[in-house]
Queue: 2 jobs
Job 1
Amino acid sequence: MSKMAKIKKEKQTAWQRFCAWVNGDTADRPLMPADPPAPRKTKTDKNKKQKTVSSRKEGIELNRFGSIYRICAVLIGVAVVTVLMVTVLQLPLFGSPDNPAVNEVVERYVEKGLEETGAVNMVAGMILDYRAFDTFGESSVLFLAVTCVTMLLMRDKNNTSKDEDLLTAREHVIEGYEEDIILTKIARLLIPCALVYGIYVVLNGHISPGGGFSGGTIMGSALILFAVSFGMIRMSRFFTYATFKKVTSCALLVYAASKAYSFFTGANHLESHIPLGTPGAILSSGLILILDICVGIVVACTMYGFYALFTKGEL
Amino acid sequence: MRLILELILPALLIVCALAVTFSKRLLVSVVIYTSFSIIMSVIWVLLESPDLAITEAAVGAGVSGLLLIYTLKKIHALKGTSDE
Amino acid sequence: MEHLLINHYETAAVILFGIGFLNLLLQNNLVKKVIGFGIMDSAVYLFLASQGYIVGRLAPILVGEVANAADYINPIPAGLVLTGIVVSVSVTAFSLALIQRLYQKYKTVNFDEIVQLARQKGDE
């Protein structure tokens, strides 16, 4: 009976802990326990002194395991490459038009694509019209990645020691005073060009090579260049964590809404009933332009977010 | 001419991959990995997919190289900086 | 052998896959493991895109009013690879963030040393 009660109690506590974790209340048991590790040298010295006898035995065992592991790894790698090479020998010749990958789907995409999607660039027409849900999932993957990196690298009380805080504060002070003159002059020339080029690539995604992903990355690298050359303090005047959250989630929601709209207008192969316009004009091809802009914004924010989290640990 | 280029570029890719594997310093391997991406983007142009070329040049050579180098700075693997 | 030379992109992709795979298994340094993973990614993309290429045809950016399927290469691999490249950069960023956290905890990026330190912590 008492055992049952104990189990029940444990379960309850586990449930309560889970509730606390969901609510974000991790004060008593932090998700990533912060124990600032001691400086490298003293630690290894201590280890050496304590573990000389036992570690020798362990080391021999580890060595033996290591050599077996190495041999096995090389064998497996060679086996994989051999099997794949044999497969390559069976493949059809490179660049032949009767390659089995070139089937009726490709014909349909190329011949009907222009009138159905209105996009001149068939790749954009494919990934943002026929397979738009796939691309939506991918933008969500990017958002998820930047969320995970935020969880891992965002600075707060739990994962930074006082020394590190001091170090970053000093870096901030240095950054405030020191401005590299060559870098800032060149950056002043380059940043507008890069931004405009990124916007051009995003807006022309459906009529020329490019699109949301590449244009978004170019815009993101322009933002990164700004942050590198003028410092994070000036960057935070117009781009903070709040703007990041708002802009990214708004772009994702607009994407979801504009694709869900096609559910209501016609369930048959997801028509959107938006006039396609003349092919080749910027304002054409229905939803593709809007979706491209959304993807571009998400990608640009994600790339800048990666940079900011990797350098300073804050957005 | 084109055939020579088509044979040289994959060979260069393999050379870059081997150089990444066997280089002693981390910074060297990161820089070689970035050049690997640039060669890759030329190959995309040869394979008639300009979308991929633009994306690879921006992502592979730009952002991921930057992230790798900042990671090296964080793990104190860069020589000649105050962090080492 | 001749077949391998004609299919040179596929052959290079397979060799690159092998190099990246062995990097992933044998390197002790975590950063190099991540780079090996990126090489494996690129190898798969190269293989996919070379399957879509057809000699003498243009990129799938339509020219003129009527599109003829015999004039353009296969757009499907390009779309798939475009998706893949952007996902692979987010995977790289995530694993690099994990490496930074491991360095903060153990002060090393050597995989064996991290395993040993983690074991010692478990013993204590």
Note: The radius of gyration of chain C is 21 Å.
Job 2
Amino acid sequence: MSANQDGTNLLEVRGLTKIFGTLTACDHIDLDIAKGEIHALLGENGAGKSTLVKMLFGSLEPNAGEIFWNGQVVKISSPGVAKKLGIGMVFQHFSLFEALTAAENIALSLDDGSPISSIAAKARALSFSYGLPLDPESLVGDLSVGERQRIEIIRCLLQTPQLIILDEPTSVLTPQEADKLFETLERLRSEGKSILYISHRLEEVKRICDRATVLRHGKVVGHCNPREETASSLARMMVGNEVQAVVRAPVEGIATAQSLLEIRNLSRKPATPFSIPLKAISLNVRAGEVIGIAGVAGNGQGEFFESVSGEVLQQDVASVRIRGKDAGGLTITGRRLLGAAFVPEERLGHGAAPRMKLSENLLLSRHATDGKAFVGSGGMVKSGAIQAASQRIIEAMDVRKSAPDPEAAALSGGNLQKFIVGRELDRRPSVMVVNQPTWGVDAGAAAHIRQALIELSRSGSAVLVISQDLDELFEISDAIAVMHNGELSKPLPIAEATFEKVGLLMGGAEPGHAEHTLETA
Amino acid sequence: MDITVNILLTIATAATPLLIAAIGELLVERSGVLNLGVEGMMIMGAVGGFGASYLTGSPWIGLLAAIAMGAVFSLLFAVMTLSLATNQVATGLSLTLLGLGLSGMMGTSFVGQPGERLPNLDIPGLTSIPVVGRLLFGQDPIFYISIALTAAVMWFLFKTRTGLTLRSIGDSHTSAHALGIQVIRYRYLAVIFGGACAGLAGGHLSLVYTPQWVENMTAGRGWIALALVVFASWRPWRVLAGAYIFGAVWIGQLHAQAFGIPVPSQFLSSLPYLATVVVLVLISRNKRLTMMNTPASLGQPFVPDR
């Protein structure tokens, strides 16, 4: 524990433990938060950060340990109790109701029974005083992720909390929106409020946090002053060992290489009232390059992936071309047979059938494309060949598992993602499209997956990566295009791309699509 | 003129049980619970209402018994689906089957017995006004309850904080739980309210519509009420419109059959269903509005993690 041992701690946690079945998510956690500080809680995915804050907010019940609030032992049995104490929370996966207005959403978390109209007025006033403009009458389903987060923050501030918990707040924001958030947080600190800031983004923790507590595998592994650390020393504390840096060799002669994936004027009407229409998207991905698509979540990336992968067919068959053939009218299998491979965002239920074994998942996705290898005469499954292939993938991607051939759902998110990516890479596809390749994957596994994608492209394939993680895109892409409100910008070569430029595009600052849609070839 | 008034009165009598059952189910579904047991709860209300009325001689006690019967029967569903998190569709279906069987057994001694009808409203001076008097002031008490109930549910859902909370639970029970809203408690109360309404609707059948006990006398009305809720996109006034359209076409086709119109009677019998679907689909064309009113967590079991 550092400087704050003089009784000014707003919150003290001693020996807090939470056990789920056989997994100890939080193992005797100690944590102190002083008044008026921004305290970072650092850790990999699965380190126990979210479990810890859920216990602080009363959503989960600890198995052991004590919580002191202003020096008094408290039992936080429900979010209502947490709110009464003065603990507010901004959730990572927003706890908003899409079919209700912003004001109604705010009203639901205030228990005072005041009429919606007065809440709307208060929210409006508060939002302007913090420079977070908000229209209380708007329907949440229509709002961008950044705007939704504003509602969560305003809702939290209206409860006048002493401690504000923010769970991965910037993972859904553009760099500019994040700057705005940091200003707000600094202002709250100057007002004497304490903030518990959860993140795995080291640069921003170094920038705004006064102290940090680092978790690994459910245990506290260190306390530090992030301003005195380097990003790599923080990463070492989080991961426990050095993270291998991703190497991206430069490519030459890409301008003349063949386009393996061509998207031409791809448009799509919104499927539901809350989804985004795609507007005349055009893009070429050539052999040997990785193109990254950046964008704030919910700007049409999901719709775009569905259209490219064949989950949704196109009326204009030439709007998606794979290896020079029109593929817009083909199903997923049809497009796979042309040499493409796809990794969707959602691992369980989309990328893999949760309750089926890894080998069965392998057969499910590849029986059509690799029929001869896996299915023998008379439709009999060649289990030996499947087991061998499954084993090959597990070794190539360093998938860690507890049983020889476990169910997909039994693997951790990172390991399952390695398996799914590996399953597609194993086919040596000439076109690979991946949506959020390392979402929720720990740093070591993420580096592995990124390196594998780069190597695939350097062996002559076209790789398209959709990601919300800008660091990742800058690490692996040869060019970055930005999706905003269903439109795709012209790809910026990586040498010209900066965080600022990409951030502005993510915020929709530059229209400039006209010339892009005219581009042919 | 008298014939018109009589037809309008029979339409109201045909629509009332549908309206009450559907309004109750609407509230249940707005909280995110799909109770397919409406038919079963209705028939239990019908047998309970008739039985209590027959044994005590008071149709008013029968009315209360019908409500209580529906509520108690729905509690069974609530315990199964909310506390034990069973599949709502399967549990609802079994509730209907159980209700149909159980009511038949309970009602064996009531078959063929004369029942007492709930008296119509009779306000001296008002009921005798020509034409509108009987329509406005001379109907059975449950008719007035059904209209008041529709207005009350509309007000509750869209004007009160508790109603907002209920709708939020229907939209996302996980978000509601994260805010500290007691999801299970709200859903219990909603399901019991829905059961009470279904019981009352059943009571209307055995105490007003045909004051006697006949096995299986709900004749699918619970299913129609369920369909009305969906086709009305979970909006109370549309449920009212749907119930009355169904009632009107139902009565209309009965008269047409009586006149001997040369159209197959099976086709005429299907008209009320067709007309209701067509009209409600037409008024629900606004997809966006429908999405906004559809409870997104409908039918999903909820187990809070602690």
Note: The two ends of chain A are 61 Å apart (CA to CA).
